[in-house]
Design a protein that fits this description.
Chain A: Pfam families: Sigma70_r2, Sigma70_r4_2. Chain A: This is RNA polymerase subunit sigma. Chain A: One of its GO terms (molecular function) is sigma factor activity. The structure holds two protein chains of two kinds. Chain A is an all-alpha fold. Helix content of chain A is 82%, strand content 0%. The radius of gyration of chain A is 22 Å and the shape is elongated. Chain B is α+β, with helices and mostly antiparallel strands. In chain B, 35% of the residues are buried. Classes of the chains: A mainly alpha, B alpha+beta.
Chain lengths: 169, 334
């Protein structure tokens, strides 16, 4: 559809001209750093292009701010994850030094797992980790958390349903 | 990066599964995870074959748990267990957005990096992000300076002026209160009562200890370890108090308040300790190899540009700085 993509392109361009500098200023105030602000602003417009907007945006600044906020949170999470990963490597009794490439793959996997678990309530999340990562039995989990094994099983089942919904919608 | 997607939907074209069927599948899955009887297994097989939707739900659920297990195996079990427990401190997207809004609303330029303290910093009255510093004057004239990654609550009542340091480090310059209310600083490990003074308090060891450095006047410190008697630290001295019951006084070091001038001062500081200090001012991890840990660092370094400080290290010490990612830097022997 060349005509609609042309329209989308023109829209992005006009939004860019009108609001790019504003967005950078907002981000710089928020992040306190010009480089990060430029990066996030760039990614925001990239998202906007990919979103393939067909009609003029009625509230372009609100829209840009929403995308940018999501991106900033994503970066904060990524940084937190990398820090936690690095810390856990450092805690290993035997020095582990995965290659840069291997690290990237592992971080990618961990990030997806984090996202999967992110919306679980705190308790089910703990139970899920104890069962599926630590491999503990219901009885062991129950003992540690002061629950009955039956309650642990039910909670794990609910967590699975929750995870399923995250993947399949 | 989508090529490496771990959690791929299984048979996405097969459409939605009825939530009730899904709950049954999850119930079976969790039951069969542990010592199911033969009778249970037989009933399960019956359920599974009863409808195609049952089989689909079952396949998807097992694919999901298999993917989780393979992600865990890929990272290494211990690493995954630790990382997944530590990382996701920004609990939900909604909370995170609320936090962004709040932070913008009170004019904080900072966004915390999701360390253990993030939540404390989000909810505190005053806070700074990693690498940020703030100075302000309270209504009674007391001046506070917050160092990097610090969080403070103000509890001013009719009878008491209390500053609660949740984490991080502050410089306090007290003022005489017009209403004559006493002033104190509370940390997670002790209570400090200044006597007309200027001092730095730092929360240490994840709240289990505190360090006070007295620039003027004196400060009385009551450690939360009940066995410890209150101690007075005079101007020109600094001391650490631990809830385990430790008290280590020594002469005031220039390094204790150098941050208020934007500097990090190292006087024969082991590299590992230097990097730990520097790491407070930048997001992510700053690691030091064991071989390089004992090298001594001397000098005054600008906190505003930690990247430059790392480059400077390479000029003065036989080390190489490896940058794996922006948030992950390691210093080792060259």
């Amino acid at each position: 559809m060349p005509s609609s993509s042309f329209a989308a392109h023109a829209e992005v361009q006009s939004v860019y001209q009108a609001h790019h500098q504003w967005l950078r200023n907002v981000l710089q105030r928020k992040l306190g750093n010009a480089c990060d602000a430029a990066d996030v602003a760039h990614d925001t417009f990239e998202r906007l292009i990919r979103a393939n907007v067909r009609e003029p945006l009625s509230e372009p600044r609100a829209y840009l701010r929403t995308i940018a906020t999501r991106l900033v949170i994503g970066r904060a999470r990524r940084a937190a994850l990398e820090a936690a990963y690095a810390e856990s490597l450092a805690l290993q009794p035997v020095a582990v030094e995965p290659s840069v490439e291997h690290r990237a793959l592992i971080l990618e996997a961990l990030e997806q797992l984090c996202e999967l678990l992110d919306t679980l309530p705190m308790n089910s999340r703990r139970i899920f980790l104890m069962a599926q990562v630590d491999g503990l039995s219901y009885a062991e989990i129950a003992q540690q958390l002061g629950l009955t094994p039956n309650a642990v099983q039910k909670s794990l089942a609910r967590a699975l349903v929750h995870c399923y919904t995250t993947v399949y919608g | 990066m989508d090529g490496a997607k771990l959690l791929r939907p299984h048979a996405p074209e097969a459409g939605r599964v009825d939530p009730k069927v899904l709950r049954q599948a999850a119930d079976w899955w969790t039951r069969l995870r542990e010592d199911a009887s033969d009778a249970d297994r037989a009933r399960f097989e019956q359920w599974r074959r009863a409808q195609p939707a049952h089989e689909l739900a079952w396949q998807r659920l097992t694919a999901l748990t298999r993917d989780v297990a393979s992600g865990v195996a890929q990272a290494g079990h211990d690493v995954a267990a630790h990382t997944l427990r530590q990382a996701p401190l920004i609990q939900s997207r909604r909370n995170a957005i609320r936090w962004m809004v709040t932070a913008a609303g009170v004019g904080l330029g900072a966004w915390a990096m999701g360390e253990a303290g993030t939540v404390r910093r989000i909810t505190a009255d005053l806070s700074t992000g990693t690498g940020e510093r703030r100075a302000l004057t309270l209504p009674d004239g007391t001046r506070l300076e917050l160092n990097t990654a610090s969080a403070v609550d103000l509890r001013y009542t009719a009878t008491l002026r209390e500053v609660v340091l949740h984490e991080g480090e502050i410089l306090v310059t007290t003022a005489q209160d017009a209403k004559g209310r006493p002033f104190q600083v509370r940390t997670r490990s002790g209570i400090l009562t200044p006597v007309g003074t200027r001092f730095v308090v730092r929360d240490l060891d994840d709240g289990r200890a505190l360090r006070v450095a007295v620039l003027q006047g004196a400060v009385d410190v009551r450690s939360l370890n009940a066995a410890d008697a209150p101690r007075r630290v005079q101007a020109g001295n600094q001391a650490e108090f631990s809830t385990a019951g430790g008290y280590a006084p020594r002469p005031l070091e220039a390094a204790a308040s150098a941050w208020t001038h934007g500097m990090l001062i190292a006087d024969e500081l082991p590299l590992a300790q230097f990097l730990q200090e520097l790491g407070r001012y930048r997001p992510g991890r700053l690691a030091c190899s064991t071989e390089a840990a004992a090298l001594r660092v001397v000098g005054a370094f600008p906190l505003a540009d930690t990247e430059r400080v790392l480059d400077m290290l390479q000029d003065v010490l036989p080390v190489r700085v490896r940058r794996y990612t922006r948030y992950w830097v390691s210093v080792g022997l060259a």
